[in-house]
Amino acid sequence: MSLLQLKKMVKRFGGLVAVNNLDLDIPEHVIYSVIGPNGAGKTTVFNCITGFYKPEGGDILLNGDSLVGLSPDRIARKGITRTYQNIRLFSNMTTLENILVGLHPHLTTNVFGAIFRPPGVRQEEAQAIAEARRLLQFVGLAGQGDLLARNLPYGMQRRLEIGRALANRPRLLLLDEPTAGMNPRETEDMTRFIRRLRDELGITILLIEHQMRVVMGISEKVSVLDYGEKIAEGTPTEIQNDPQVIEAYLGRGSSAAEVSTFTRTAA
Description:
Elements: E1 2-13, E2 16-27, E3 31-35, H1 42-49, E4 57-62, E5 65-66, H2 72-77, E6 80-82, H3 95-103, H4 111-116, H5 119-138, H6 154-166, E7 172-176, H7 184-201, E8 204-208, H8 212-218, E9 221-226, E10 229-234, H9 236-240, H10 243-250, H11 256-266
Parallel strand pairs: 3-8, 3-9, 6-7, 7-8
Antiparallel strand pairs: 1-2, 1-4, 4-5, 9-10
Helix pairs in contact: 3-5, 3-6
């Protein structure tokens, strides 16, 4: 069953067509990757899905309901959250406080309750803190709730950002280059962690990633964009051997040695 569908979606910036007539069909409980050269329109797609941009044409459907025109906070409440290519943590807040920010849409306390703190408010706060600690443990930060986010190693900052996204209890999680800047060991750890998100939590993952080995090793399905248009779609094996994909990444007239290196790297 489809969880998210993009139908003939178009996004323009003045005279530049960043995304053109894009169709995507993302089933539930899969890891689905969107790849392509720099400037292909991948992050623009994420920004349209999450409400930061409004497309000029087409539609975006979550379980059949249109998301076009909804604000980012309303889309988040419907169960779509994301991370960013450049980590966007609250660096001067603790890891626990960062997770609590993600839980905020599910809390009911108002200004009156925050000031006078009746028993119901105190109980909700205790439950939120317990949930935040559970999420810290899940992402590998157990016992580090008092540590400032800026003091975490780079790989753990990535995990904390994902933990904050998980606090919103998403059905669909959009990960924008989650292994960017990581060394091989960190990349391998993050790849296993992304699988856990799908396998243990049942979350559908939509992934942008430049490391082809990660994409091909983790995805059930891959779509390839080039200049805002989808040029290929299929399984990882189909994608890594697709002539249009190879041309998009290497250019026309690539040598046999270059093509061999590309397919070997992506394997």
